[in-house]
Amino acid sequence: MGAPPVLRQPTDKPPFTLAEIKKAIPPHCFERSLIKSSYYLLHDLFIVAALVYFATAVIPALPAGLPRLVAWTLYWVAARLRVARRVDHRARYSHRRHHSNRGSLERDENFVPQQKAALAWYAPYAPYIEGNAAGRLLLIAVRLILGWPLYLTFNSHGRAYPRWANHFDPYGPIFSDRERALVFVTDVSLLAVWFALFKLASAFGFWSVVRVYGGPLLVVNAWLVLIVYLHHTHQALPHYDSSEWDWLRGALATVDRDYGVLNYFFHHIADTHVLHHLFSAMPHYHAWRPPRRSDPSSATTTSSTPRPSPGPLARDQGVRYVESMEDGKGVFWYTNKF
Question: What percent of the chain has pLDDT over 70?
Fold first, then answer.
């Protein structure tokens, strides 16, 4: 049996407004609480401290070999469950513009799909690599391990700018004049972190720092690429050129992903991602399944997929470029045909 046809998201202008969606959500869902926010911060800091103790005191006391290997692997994964997305000024600015331009082929900031004419010369050969399990696994591993540093350094899979762009250059085209000073501060802070890691490696050994800090960092980077990719890449999601794009349709062109019990550890950023794009200032502790009033738009504003498995990631690896299915209409869909 073949795969079921993809049910594409509607692309007509919605018969409702953002204000009408907001009106359908109880007002308390938009209220911020210093007590609740502080609780979640202290909750996570406590668990991070416990994990550091586990890594520096418990694991070294275990027998060498398999027990330590298993313990380190569990520590790296658990550290990812509690370490929130690292927010610096560089990523914050480009992420804000991503929210302002989601779904736009010209102005979105990350995982912007290419049109066929802009593909690299080797793109038609990708199916031969992805056609077997080993090749597909290799491509997924490269994307997860190198995706985040490549995006920051070379703007890989980012918005097309008239000149080379990266997130470390305060005077690059990614940033405006009023943003450059804080980007410079972030760069200096990053150098300070690297210096601190150098001193720690000198005192405790290079591999000790790699195990305690490098492993979780690698997992965090991989997870960040994975969730952003899966939220914004799906055969059912449209993209728009400037003739069709508007903010509401762009914001709705995202997808929720259900991770089961892990949603709690991720502060529900995955299973409420559409809502996050619509109301990014809503606290995460209210965004989780807010009770709805009569809301005729709910079917559109809660687009979601079943709990992810290796299948969706492997399948969505095959969306290679976008093209308009109707001549002259600025709505574009993913395809993998050459």
Answer: 86
